[in-house]
Amino acid sequence: MTPNQITAVRVAAAFAAVAIFTFWSTSPIADLAAVALTIAAIALDALDGYLARTRNLATPLGAQLDILGDRVVENLLFTFFAVAGLVSLWVPVVFFARGTLTDFLRSLAARSGRAGFGPSGMHASWWGRALVASRSSRAAYASLKCLCFCLLGLLVSFEHAPREWLVEPARAILATCAQILVSVTVAFCILRALPVLWDGRRYLSGPTANRSATVAVVGPTR
Predict the structure, then answer these.
(1) Total tally of structural domains belonging to the chain
(2) Strand ranges (DSSP E) for 51-121?
(3) Residue 144 in contact with residue 185, Cβ under 8 Å?
(4) Is residue 17 part of a domain?
């Protein structure tokens, strides 16, 4: 499979998870299957990037599709959990607004030939590359979202499980941990947006300024 096909599969897995949670959530077994699909939707994000690097299949289009897949998965799942009453409505609102703004700036950068996360990416500052483009930052962000969605999915599962499966104090502890993890994930989401806003500001000045900025960034690295 190509990296772009894997991106499509993980988006489909996220939709399948929400469909099971919504329409077939009559038993904890079905809910746990939805949790497994949620894990797959997040884990496959690492696989498509790995294939793109190792098979030399990385393209500007693929990088944009990877970002699009991230947006669809996170917005879909956070919106579902907000509708289910497990997170505040402001959580998907923050993710949607943040994603819209950063993707707008990335689209302006792409028109100037700066796209993706590698040497041709839009981030000129070292801290921008560290927070947004580094593998460690992306892995940490994906891990936070995966843990967050898994805990929230388990909370949905336990709503349909017999009470003896999990005593009330344990349910409360799980819910508290999920809320703390959601807060940390939202904070990290906003933190990772700051370099995009900072490095993307130069692309708001028009094509001429964009070309100059590109030359300034690329020139010293050659």
Answers:
(1) 1
(2) none
(3) yes
(4) yes
